[in-house]
Amino acid sequence: xxxxxxxxxxxxxxxxxxxxxxxxxxxxxxxxxxxxxxxxxxxxxxxxxxxxxxxxxxxxxxxxxxxxxxxxxxxxxxxxxxxxxxxxxxxxxxxxxxxxxxxxxxxxxxxxxxxxxxxxxxxxxxxxxxxxxxxxxxxxxxxxxxxxxxxxxxxxxxxxxxxxxxxxxxxxxxxxxxxxxxxxxxxxxxxxxxxxxxxxxxxxxxxxxxxxxxxxxxxxxxxxxxx
Length: 227
Description:
Elements: E1 17-27, E2 37-43, E3 63-66, H1 67-77, E4 81-85, H2 95-104, E5 108-113, E6 127-131, E7 156-161, H3 164-176, E8 184-189, H4 196-206, E9 211-212, H5 216-221
Parallel strand pairs: 2-4, 4-5, 5-6, 6-7, 7-8, 8-9
Antiparallel strand pairs: 1-2, 1-3
């Protein structure tokens, strides 16, 4: 399914617009809803520069869409799951309105966020998939730690790990903040930095209450945009 990267309407001056890199239908490749056909709404822009980022093409550019136009495009694909992602979607304040509108329309909505921005105002019907940046990401200083007490069973926490040091750091954060008691916790290997088998062995050896995951979409389509 080809990604759409231009707005289907001409209301670019509307106050409810968002800058969008792409909207496309694919399979959810990670987290709790992995495997479900999902519409991805990728917002443009991100204040972070993680060393392993695979969506740098979303840092700049994009096109202005009204929220109404976004909902029309999502509806055209005919599936129940919608993932709002980036970039960092919460870097555009009107993302909050989009999330609520998607929930109002009856979709199962998830938000992929870097964890660097306050999530308190996100609609409680949304499953917030919160990254916690490790030392190996080069952005550990950007973690907004007050987000962690806000997490509920609807939410998910993801660590992308670059090596043994990251693993031990994440294991300590998991225990210190009792994350597994709050929500699902996901450990993923950074594709270019850590062998998936090594991470799997460490999780099993330590009997960690986390879910090992690999990104399904990358196994199927590598890093092809819009997939």
